[in-house]
Amino acid sequence: METEKRFLGVLTSSPFRIAIVYSTVFAFGAVALLGAVYFAVSRVVDGSTDNLIEAEVQGLREQVQVLSRADFIELVEQRSEDQDVRGAEYLMVDAQLRPVAGNVPAWPTAAEDQGKWVQFKVSVPYGDTTREHEVRARRFPLYGGYRMLVGHDVQERQDVKNVMLRGLIAAVVATLLLGLGGGIWLGRRILAQAGAISAVATQIMQGDLSQRLPVRDAEDEINKLALEINRMLEKIEQLTLGMRTVLDSAAHDLRTPLNRLQATAEAAIGQLEPGSSERRVLERVTTEVDRMRGTLDALLRIALAETGTVAREPVDLSALVASMVELYEPVSEERGLRLVGSVVPGVQVLGSRQLLAQAIANLLDNALKFTPAGGHIKVLLQTSDGVSAVIIEDDGPGIPADKRELVLGRRVRLDEARDLPGSGLGLSLVAAVAKLHGARLILDDAHPGLRVALRFG
Amino acid sequence: MHILIVEDDQVARDYLARGLRDVGHTVDVAADGIEGLQLASSLPVELAIVDRMLPKLDGLALVQSLRATGRKYPVLILSALGEVDDRVMGLRAGGDDYLTKPYHLVELLARVEALARRGDGAVSEASTKLRLADLELDRMTRRVTRGGKKIELTAREFQLLEFMMRHSGQVVTRTMLLEGVWDYHFDPQTNVIDVHISRLRQAIDKDFDKPLLHTVRGAGYSLREDE
After folding, report:
1. Which residue, of A2, A56, A96, A333, is most buried by count of CB atoms within 10 Å of its CB?
2. Distance between CA atoms of A147 and A143, rounded to whole angstroms?
3. Would an 8 Å CB–CB cutoff place A294 in contact with chain B?
4. pLDDT tens string A305-320
5. Which CATH number fits domain A310-456: 3.30.565.10, 2.30.110.10, 3.40.30.10, 3.20.20.70?
6. Minimal Cα–Cα distance from B184 to chain A, Å?
7. Is B70's Cβ below 8 Å from some Cβ in A?
8. What does pTM read for this prediction?
9. For chain A, what are the domain ranges?
10. How large is the ipTM?
């Protein structure tokens, strides 16, 4: 399965496709080049034998004028047996096509007719066996019904042509195979490099900014690209770590005095009579410290989520959503609301369980806050086409369409919510957590009420 | 109990020391990491409260070297960073609990109490039956009875009761419950925990004369026999 996938990967890789195109082009080139050579050589070879035969025919025609029949037969026999002229074929037949002289056993009857030329096969002794040889010949009439055939064994020439043809086919096949092989090799090489790059990219996306692309000891484009990207990653890491450091010191510098304030106020409260006005003032102070802490926590978490430096791990989203429903169900019932959950099992996402829980809690806090008693809240976890979505739907007043964009901004509270508790950072945090997880936050009309969806993937 | 506080902020340190002495602990304080390490090595410390960011020797490094030298007493880390992964780092370095500033003294005292009790080994992890007065919880059979009468609980109510029984006699805060029972580390704006507790109270106290689950004003809850 895995190897099959990798093989398919090679087949669809761009170097492999390029190799296929190039080897096809080269194969066409080879066909054209070798084809031209083949035809040129054929013409020369064919032409020279044809000329030889023509000359011989011419000579015999002249001889037949001057020689007696017996002398002419003698001449034909002589030429037939002449070992110097290799491959020459003669046959003289009478009117009944019976051989009179020559080294061809019989007058070719079923020979392929090419105008005045004929081509036929004769058996030639070849070691212990015989071999069929191709003979090309011309026929012409002598006198008194006698006829003459002058030809030449063209088997050798045929053999040369066959060898050339086989060579041509082999060259084309070899070009294609080499191209294919080279393409697969190149494809695998590029795929391996691309695979290494995308593995690193995935790790970086998961928040491990210390990852770098593998660099080889070569001067090619991919290597140069990897070096450039690594320099860019270096910069991003520095910026992000810088941001994280700023966040950490901001957190420290704000939490430390708040903690001191809290300690001082609490210490003083402990020494005051319960119900005294001084004590009430200090209790107000600690309440405000709690509120500031809440705001600070939210702001820091938003900033943290936006730096993307949160460690990510596989989170069982189904279990998380189910447990949030279970956590909020009693309080909903107490407020006269009906909270129901519908969760598909087995949904996993890569991310921060705590931040996802906080985001869902913020959405549920909002739904509880804005839905009047007697209302309904639905929490759904759905998947379709590999996209999972957490949906929280209430039948409260909802948010007008023109204000949905607005509420995602920081510290925005609609007039309707002015007198309700809250920092106005709840949805901003949800938006930042969504972004951190590559999810989309969509606010919609639930007819009536608000429908908030976190779509992963 | 002998408690060592390593905290560079003087106001916070003094208040913390006084608060712990008021409830009967012996307290020693250190203002930086090196001093903390020296005191931790020379005093019969039973529990340490360590600030995460300390001068001279970082709080996490201090906890690591305590652990490396075989000191197994509980350590509570205080942090002015307090982000999701800082907590993980703190616990990984060897801390047993983690509290973000600013905190309420009651929250810290409740956590110290819980850690101290764990160090005592008073509640064994392995014991299958937990008992308080006539209330009995069997972790193996997941059966809860009070006065011999079976009490029906949901899975979560069972977990909640188990947590409360492990910490019986102590104050347990809402945050401790959300962390200990649900493993969530944030403050919900809604009083989700209170309603869970009141459901549990319905289940275990309603039909009985003596209530076991008490509300501790301004702090949280406590499961105990009323004296």
Report:
1. A56
2. 7
3. yes
4. 888 778 788 999 999 9
5. 3.30.565.10
6. 6
7. no
8. 0.70
9. 1-205, 221-306, 310-456
10. 0.90
